[in-house]
């Protein structure tokens, strides 16, 4: 999950998150793509000047990522 600065947090339902992430067939690949972009940013690749710029560009996707992650997390929980 992303720790999203309050200014970039959005209320979003599961249906909207699914739509933003590309529908049922594209959710996993889009989530992975957003995660990879963040990891590249954090590893020193200067695509974005700072975290704020990253979140300005990827605001919808990171919020959708968190909504989808929360929804799917119980599916992978171990007993």
Number of domains: 1
Rg over C-alpha atoms, rounded to the nearest angstrom: 13 Å
Low-confidence stretches: none
Helix/sheet category: mainly alpha
Q: Report the end-to-end length measured between terminal Cα atoms.
A: 21 Å
The mean pLDDT is 91
| Extended strand count | 0
Total helices: the number is 3
Percent in helix = 55-70%
Largest sheet report: none
| Shape field | globular
* Beta strand %: under 5%
Q: SSE order, as H and E?
A: HHH
Describe the structure in your own words.
With 79 residues, the protein is mostly helical. Helix 1 crosses helix 3 (51-72) and helix 2 runs antiparallel to helix 3. The mean pLDDT is 91. It contains three helices and no strands. The chain has one domain (6-70). The protein starts with 13 loop residues before the first helix and ends in a 7-residue tail after the last helix. The chain has helices spanning 14-20, 27-42, 51-72. It is globular, with a radius of gyration of 13 Å. Helices cover 57% and strands 0% of the residues.
What is the structure about, briefly put?
It is built from 3 helices and no strands.
